[in-house]
Amino acid sequence: MNDIIMKYMCLYIYLLFMKIMNIMSGISSILAMGLLSPVQSMLSLMILFLSTSFCLYLQGFELIGLLYMLMYVGAIAILFTFILSLLNIEYLPKNNIQSTSYLLFIFLIMPLDLSYEADSLIMNLFNINNELITIGDLLYSEYAIIFMLSSIILVMSVVGAMSVIKC
Amino acid sequence: MFSILTILLMFYFCKNNIITLLISIEMLLLTVTLKFIYLGGYLNDISPTMFALLIIILAGAESAIGLSLLVSYYKLRGRITHIL
């Protein structure tokens, strides 16, 4: 009896945490767009990435959640912050959105769009055991050409970035 | 579809700013990838996960190119807001 109560308590806390993460991702996606200064919008973009990766991790897509945190927060957000510190922009927060259009933004599906399919944990729990093994197999057998093409795209992007800055 | 429309509308209503444009492109890719992953979990399929990996790689390349364009635009014009 006690075990069952503990199990339901854990499930309830789990669902509540997931709902909180969904709502936080929706709010920070609105905040990241326009109504703050660039530094604060970068901060809310990081919050958006973190909450999205928490959502993915909690719903059973563990590898993709960890990869999101690694790639977006570790690489792209740091790149944005570095560029923001490099440039000389005004850092005062201005009201960039007209205040009549807040309501439009809030009702225009952006929070609902990120918090899609929130309660699907039970369906996904049985196929997460060998996700990494399956992805590794597929990357070396079926998707090998696409894998090599993506590596070539990365190298070309680095060379292109350097050549764009140079001239 | 809703995410594409919403992000374009938001970018239109905001004062146009290249950093906001790049951030909105990142959020657009994030939303589309999230839809792919949820659909893959719903259908018990692995190929949307591979798609998500490729989209993450493309997003990294795109943000690098976009930020280098931003720096070169700043060196050329001296400002990055009010681009239109």
UniProtKB/TrEMBL annotation, chain A:
Keywords noted in UniProt: Electron transport, Membrane, Mitochondrion, NAD, Respiratory chain, Translocase, Transmembrane, Transmembrane helix, Transport, Ubiquinone
Ranges annotated as spanning the membrane: 12-36, 66-89, 101-123, 143-165
Membrane-topology descriptor: Multi-pass membrane protein
Annotated InterPro entries: NADH_UbQ/plastoQ_OxRdtase_su6, Nuo/plastoQ_OxRdtase_6_NuoJ
Annotated localization: Mitochondrion membrane
MF (Gene Ontology): NADH dehydrogenase (ubiquinone) activity
One Pfam family it belongs to: Oxidored_q3
Enzyme class: translocase
Catalytic reactions on record: a ubiquinone + NADH + 5 H(+)(in) = a ubiquinol + NAD(+) + 4 H(+)(out)
Chief localisation class: mitochondrion
Enzyme Commission (EC) number: 7.1.1.2
GO CC, alphabetical: mitochondrial membrane
UniProt superkingdom: Eukaryota
Family, similarity comment: Belongs to the complex I subunit 6 family.
Stated role: Core subunit of the mitochondrial membrane respiratory chain NADH dehydrogenase (Complex I) which catalyzes electron transfer from NADH through the respiratory chain, using ubiquinone as an electron acceptor. Essential for the catalytic activity and assembly of complex I.
Name used for this protein in its record: NADH-ubiquinone oxidoreductase chain 6
Record organism: Australozyma saopauloensis
From TrEMBL, chain B:
Regions that span the bilayer: 18-38, 50-74
Keyword field contains Transmembrane helix: yes
E.C. code: 7.1.1.2
Molecular function, one GO term: NADH dehydrogenase (ubiquinone) activity
InterPro entries listed in its UniProt record: NADH_UbQ_OxRdtase_chain4L/K (IPR001133), NUOK/Mnh_C1-like (IPR039428)
Reaction(s) catalysed (UniProt annotation): a ubiquinone + NADH + 5 H(+)(in) = a ubiquinol + NAD(+) + 4 H(+)(out)
GO cellular component, one term: NADH dehydrogenase complex
GO biological process: ATP synthesis coupled electron transport
Subcellular location per the Swiss-Prot or TrEMBL entry: Mitochondrion inner membrane; Mitochondrion membrane
Protein name: NADH-ubiquinone oxidoreductase chain 4L
Species per Swiss-Prot/TrEMBL record: Australozyma saopauloensis
Lineage: Eukaryota, Fungi, Dikarya, Ascomycota, Saccharomycotina
